[in-house]
Amino acid sequence: MHAARLRTLSILTVVVLIAGYSLAAFSAPMDADQGFMQKIFYLHVPMAIVALCGFVFGGIFAIAHLRTEDPTWDLRSYVAIHIALILGVGVLITGAIWAKASWGHWWVWDEPTLVSFLIIFLLYATYTPLRFSIEDRERQARYASVFAVTAGAFVPLNFVAVRSATSLVHPRTFDSADNLPGAMRSAFLVCLLGMALLFVTLWKLEMTHKHTTAQLRALKRKLGGEDGGRPRRSAAPELRVG
Amino acid sequence: MIAAALPDNAGYVVAAYLVFLALLLIYVAIIAFKLVRMQRDVSELNDLADRRAGAPGDASADDEPSVVGRSSLHE
C-alpha cells in the first residue's frame, strides 16, 4: 500500500464524513417524533452497519486464508475484526445514550436488536483472547480463521432472525421503501459512505503499519541485529518478509 | 450561550458524537505511539547499516556504541 494512496483515501474519508454530518445537521429535517435527538441516528446506524459488515469481511478473508494458507489473509481478517470491534464499542455506547434519551433506559433487555448486537459483540470479543491463548503461530492463524468464518456466518443469520422477530421499542431502519424521507435518506447514505470509507482507511492504515513493521524486522534480521530468540507471544498475526 | 441555542436533549446528541470522536482520537493516539516506536526502529537500523558500511578499516566506527547492547526491535 503506497502512502500516497492512503493519504488520498484519508482525505476522501474526511471530506465525505464532514459532508455527511453537515447534511445531517443542516439539511436533514427534524424528526417529527424524536426531534433533535434523532440526529444520533446518522452516527449510530452507519456505525452498526459498517461494524457488522466488518465482521462479515473478517470471515470472508478468513475463508481466503484457509484456502490459500497465506498469512496475509489472516492479517486482513484480524485487522477487519479488530476495527469492527472498535466500531462495535461505539455502537453500544451511542446506542445506550440514544436509548436513555429516547426510552429513559440505558439498556432494554427485552429488545432483540440490542441483545443480538451485544451477543455478536461479545462473541467477537473472545477473538483476540482466543488468538492469544494459542502459542503456535500456524495453529493460531488456522483456529482464528475457523472462528472468524463461523462467527461471520452467524452475523447475517442473526440479522435475519432479529428482523423476523417482533420489535418492542427499537425501530427498523429499512422496513419499507419510504420510511426515510428524501433529505434524511441522502444524509444517511452519505454518512454511511463516510463510515465505510473510515473503516477502509483505518483498515489500510493498520495493514500498512503491520507490513512496515514486518519489513523492518526483516531488515533487522538481514543486518544481523536480531537476537534470534523466541518470538514474543502475541494475538496479532506475524508476517514474515524476506 | 451555545447551550441555550440548542434544542432539548441536545446533550445526549453531543455526548454520542463526542464518544465517536474520542474513539477516533484514542485510535489515532495509539497509531502515533506505534509510529514513534517504528521511527526509533528505523534510526536503530540506520545506525546498524552505518556500522556495517564503516566496519572494515573504519576507525570512527569503533567509537560508536554497540548495537548489540541496545533494546531489541522485537516488541
List the quaternary state of the chains: heterodimer
Number of domains of chain A: 1
**Overall geometry of chain A:** globular
Query: Sheet with the most strands of chain A?
Result: none
Summarize the helices and strands and which ones pair or pack.
The complex is a heterodimer of chains A (242) and B (75).
Chain A (H helix, E strand, L loop, with lengths): L2 H25 L13 H28 L2 H33 L8 H14 L1 H7 L3 H28 L17 H41 L20
Helix pairs in contact in A: 1-7, 2-3, 2-6, 2-7, 3-4, 3-6, 3-7, 4-6, 5-6
Chain B lengths: L1 H4 L4 H45 L21
What would you say this structure looks like, in words?
The complex is a heterodimer of chains A (242) and B (75). Chain A has one domain (9-27, 36-168, 187-222). Chain A has helices at 3-27, 41-68, 71-103, 112-125, 127-133, 137-164, 182-222. In chain A, helix 2 (41-68) packs antiparallel against helix 3, helix 3 packs antiparallel against helix 4 and helix 5 packs antiparallel against helix 6 (137-164). Chain A starts with a helix and ends in a 20-residue tail after the last helix. Chain A is globular and about 65 Å long. Chain A has 242 residues and is an all-alpha fold. Chain B has two helices and no strands. Chain B has 75 residues and is an all-alpha fold. Chain B has helices at residues 2-5, 10-54. The A-B interface holds A 35-37, 39-40, 43-44, 47, 86, 89-90, 93-94, 97-98, 100-101, 202, 205-206, 209, 212-213, 216-217, 219-220, 223-227, 229, 231-232, 234 and B 6-10, 12-13, 15-17, 19-20, 23, 27, 31, 34-35, 38, 41-42, 44-45, 48-49, 52, 67, 72-75.
In short:
The complex is a heterodimer of chains A (242) and B (75). With 242 residues, chain A is an all-alpha fold.
Throw out a few tags for this protein:
heterodimer; A: 242 residues; mainly alpha; 7 helices; globular; B: 75 residues; 2 helices
